[in-house]
Specification:
- This protein is mainly α.
- It folds into 2 domains: about 45 residues; about 35 residues.
- It is rod-shaped.
- It starts with a helix and ends in a 12-residue tail after the last helix.
- The mean pLDDT is about 85.
Length: about 100
């Protein structure tokens, strides 16, 4: 009787091992299918790469710095232009 009981346990252990192996295979297959579908979805969408994003970001930072520098220069030029006395007739004829 001990012999049959051991065979039943061996069969059960083999069944559990096979089920675990099959579950692992199914998991890998689902991951592969999911990854493939996600890559296909990203390919159809208009999504930029990280490198493209960083390049455009750097361009925007440089443009902001340039705009700030030019704003300071314009303010200085306007200060000089508006601080000189007018050379035209002080009593212009207005229409």
């Amino acid at each position: 009787m001990t012999q049959t009981r051991s065979a039943i346990f061996d069969d059960f252990a083999r069944l559990v091992t096979d089920a675990a192996g099959m579950a692992h295979g199914v998991r890998r297959e689902v991951e592969t299918i999911g990854r493939t579908q996600f890559e296909r979805l990203l390919a159809t969408m208009d999504v930029v790469s990280r490198e493209e994003f960083e390049a455009v970001r750097e361009m925007a930072v440089l443009a902001r710095e340039d705009n700030a520098r030019l704003a300071v220069r314009i303010a200085a030029l306007e200060a000089v232009a508006f601080s000189t006395p007018p050379t035209a007739d002080p009593n212009p004829i207005l229409l």
